[in-house]
Structures are given as structure tokens and as C-alpha cells.
Amino acid sequence: MTWINAHMRQCAYSTLMQDILNALCDSTRRAALAILWDGGEHCVCELMERLDVSQSRMSRHMKVLREAGLVLDRRDAQWVRYRRNPDLSPEIIDVISAVLTAETSLEQEMA
To answer: What is the pLDDT of residue 7?
Structure first.
């Protein structure tokens, strides 16, 4: 029974990590996360403007981030506001922070 529980936990972890890595593979989603990583709440309209992305495209990207558990959303009249999920584990925060930091460093090197 213990092996089965350990195996199930490992599969759940692998699925979670795959969802997170899939969410991070897109540059628009990484850019949105970089904005949200400040800890504040941001309207999808702000994300659209800052990233020069249509409403439908931004909504699709945010759905991927939400389904991966990286962001939370809140409806505010006609708009949706997003924020970083405060319940992320320290390990997941470290992974995302490392990806965002590496991307910023590479962008600076290329400039």
C-alpha cells in the first residue's frame, strides 16, 4: 500500500510540474507572470495593453496559467483581475523566479 501511495504522489507531482513547465514555455505567459510576480493584482486590460495582446489571446494565456495553479483570478465588473497564487510552494516559486530572472538576463545580454 505504501508503494502505491508513493507512486500516486510521484505521478501527481510529475503532472503538476509538467503543467507548470507547459505554462512557462510561452513568452507571452512568461511576460504576464513577470508583471504579476510583483505581488499585486492586475486587470486583464492592463496585461493586454502592456503586452500588446488581444483580449481573447490574453484570456487564453491566463487560462493556462490559472489551470496550472500559478495565478488566481477575480471578476471585477466586465474585467478579470489576476494575481500570483499566494499558496505556491517555495520550490515552485523558486522555479518560476529562476525562469523569469534568466529571461531578463538573456534579454539584457541581447540588447
So the answer is: 45
